[in-house]
Specification:
Radius of gyration: 20 Å
Structural class: mainly alpha
Number of strands: 0
Length: about 280
């Protein structure tokens, strides 16, 4: 009986994830916007701020473009989390969510399936951006990058992005589940998640002291971005020594991701009883 329930839960989770993937690729505007906006951000800010933001070990303007690249990758993960969890509100409005809730699948399978679909989309888009960024630099849009990832770095970066994407999608799920309108969801996202990204070290390093330093160090996304920066930046790059250690990044990011997943499952079960 337990094996049958587990099997049903696994099938349901992957079916829900596959539904998220099909929904994404059928909406061509989302496919274009998912990469178009982050690339524009990276080119404009990389070229515009390159002359005024210099890393301590570099006299060229390539420092900021390379520094900002992991931040843009995390922005892709964040935007994907926002758009993937909007489907929760749409599914409730269309009646699909109610049908899933009355089915015998475990609530954890419902949550995991929704999060898995968002994670896959986020990681694929972020890896595509990291892959084409050096090509854009060679074409002259920004200053040249000294970044060549090995196969192991690609695997490690992809795995770490999956953890960060899971955290962000779980957070988006937690916010979207009780919402009744997409307008209210967008309002919360713009007030909450965008400052969360801006204060993660994506635009500028964490200050050594002051109130801004405390806020950025309390931001869980700071550790997700720091872990990604350690994986994709060349060894010896300026600023790496000031980042949290890899063990701290892993403990904080994985721990918060699991806590958010547990909160999502608990909220889903409560909502089913309340309804």
């Amino acid at each position: 009986m337990q094996q049958s329930t587990f099997r049903i839960g696994v099938i349901a989770a992957f079916s829900l994830a596959a539904r998220e993937l099909r929904r994404f690729f059928r909406q061509r505007t989302r496919v274009v916007g998912a990469l178009g906006q982050p690339i524009i951000f990276w080119i404009l800010f990389g070229a515009g701020l390159g002359g005024s933001f210099r890393m301590s070990d570099s006299a060229s303007t390539s420092g900021y473009a390379a520094y900002f690249l992991p931040g843009v990758a995390v922005m892709i993960l964040l935007f994907t989390a926002i758009f993937s969890t909007i489907s929760i509100i749409e599914d409730r409005r269309e009646g699909f969510l109610q049908g899933v809730l009355v089915s015998p699948i475990p609530r954890s399978s419902l949550v995991f399936g929704k999060l898995l679909g968002g994670c896959i989309l986020a990681v694929v888009q972020a890896l595509l951006f990291v892959g084409i960024a050096p090509l854009l630099a060679r074409m002259g849009f920004v200053a040249p990058l000294s970044m060549e990832l090995t196969g192991m770095q690609w695997l490690a970066a992809g795995a770490w992005m999956a953890v960060v994407a899971f955290l962000l999608t779980a957070l988006g799920y937690l916010i979207a589940w009780p919402m009744e309108s997409t307008q209210g969801f967008h309002a919360i996202m713009s007030v909450f998640l965008m400052p969360m990204w801006l204060l993660s070290g994506a635009f500028f390093p964490v200050p050594a002291q002051g109130w801004l330093s405390w806020i950025m160090r309390a931001n869980p996304l700071t550790y997700g971005l720091a872990g990604l920066r350690r994986l994709v930046m060349p060894a010896g790059s300026s600023g790496l020594e000031d980042l949290p250690s890899w063990s701290v990044c892993a403990i904080v990011t994985v721990g918060i991701a699991l806590l958010l997943f547990a909160a999502d499952v608990a909220l889903t079960r409560w909502k089913q009883v309340a309804s």
